[in-house]
Design goal:
Layout: E1 3-9, E2 12-18, H1 28-32, E3 43-45, E4 52-55, E5 63-66, H2 68-90, H3 92-99, H4 110-132
Antiparallel strand pairs: 1-2, 3-4, 4-5
Amino acid sequence: NDSVETISTRNTKAKVSLEVREVVNASDEDVNDPNSKDFIRFMSAKQGNDATTIYVHDHSLRKTKVNETSIEECARVLSENLQDTFKRVTKSDQILQLYDQFVEPEQFDPRDELKRSKNAIENYLRRRAEFAY
């Protein structure tokens, strides 16, 4: 099970997904050592500090300081990467190009659809009433 926490840093909020997985036969030292294959990423917030120290994903010894500015930058880069991955996986650009010649863009107005439906129902009821008498 994954859980999500909201970390508030001044006026910036970031959602943090906590990793939950079973590590068989691993000691506390193994899961906390960035050089271990069983290392589990974590965030450690220190009271009175507006930043959080996290280990980078590649399990190196480097530490990245997360603050208001770097969270925004990380979110921007993550967003760009997710959009790029989505486009590559779904081939949405290619699909749009392939079907572009078959479709015409149309502005959908629900009020127009409701008026058409209302008129169709009124016409049906009028004809039905005429046949009833």
